[in-house]
Design goal:
The protein is 36% helix and 32% strand. It is of the alpha/beta class and 223 residues long. The chain has a five-stranded mixed barrel with strand order 5-9-8-6-10, surrounded by four helices. The longest helix is centred in the last third of the chain and has 25 residues, at 198-222. The termini are close together.
């Protein structure tokens, strides 16, 4: 079974509408829709933005549905000058850029308890996504997650310089964290909706979401 998590309705409604033989459960105020996509078992949920929402959704999905892999799909802000609006980002690793225990001697981004800064994405999923997106303007790299909507060059530079990230979101690193602790493979697919600025986001979020859904449906068929 493939687990799919998005942060907004516009990132998940198209997936749910593509499902057949659906069953819906509401757990902890999150709607989980289980069904089939092209004959393959899948479950999809909208978690709402932010790391706690994302982690809660991922843990419930794992305990309830036991997915073989979870993929976090949707939009992101660009941190790379080569990634314009509607470019595709495939996560190679995820990091939580706002996790900071440096005052206690830890490296920036080092997550206490699991002792890692970067959460690796499943290589097989990365290869499948890379093949699907071969005709797109696409880049594979590090996605940085935090409980902030990143706006402004100063914030973008801080994340780039500290972590080498090419895109930023508010969920991927948290879902990757949960997946690692549960030994569940994880993948991340993002379509750039903005240059990490609010104005661009409001203009392009729907187009970027629709593109991520199209790619994700191809992923489910292929994986």
């Amino acid at each position: 079974m493939i687990g799919i998590i998005g942060a907004m309705d516009i990132e998940t409604d198209g997936i749910k509408h593509s499902m057949t033989e659906t069953e819906t459960k509401n757990i902890s105020s999150i709607e989980f829709v289980k069904g089939k996509i092209c004959g393959k078992d899948a479950v999809c949920a909208m978690c709402n933005p932010g790391k706690v929402n994302a982690a809660l959704c991922a843990q419930i999905m794992i305990l309830t549905y036991n997915p073989d892999i979870i993929i976090n799909s949707g939009v992101a802000g660009s941190l790379d000058t080569e990634l314009d609006v509607l470019s595709v980002v495939i996560g190679e690793k995820c990091v939580q850029h706002d996790y900071d225990l440096t005052a206690l001697g830890s490296p920036l981004g080092m997550i206490d308890g699991v002792n890692t800064v970067y959460f690796k994405c499943d290589k097989n999923a990365v290869d499948v996504l890379d093949s699907i997106c071969s005709s797109e303007k696409c880049k594979t790299g590090i996605i940085a997650t935090g409980d902030q909507f990143i706006s402004g060059e100063k914030s973008k530079k801080r994340i780039r310089d500290n972590f080498g990230a090419i895109a930023c979101d508010m969920e991927g690193g948290a879902i990757a964290h949960v997946c690692m602790t549960n030994d569940v493979p994880f993948a991340a697919l993002r379509v750039i909706s903005d240059g990490a600025s609010e104005i661009d986001f409001n203009i392009f979020k729907t187009k970027a979401s629709n593109k991520s859904i199209e790619i994700l449906l191809d992923f489910v068929k292929t994986f």
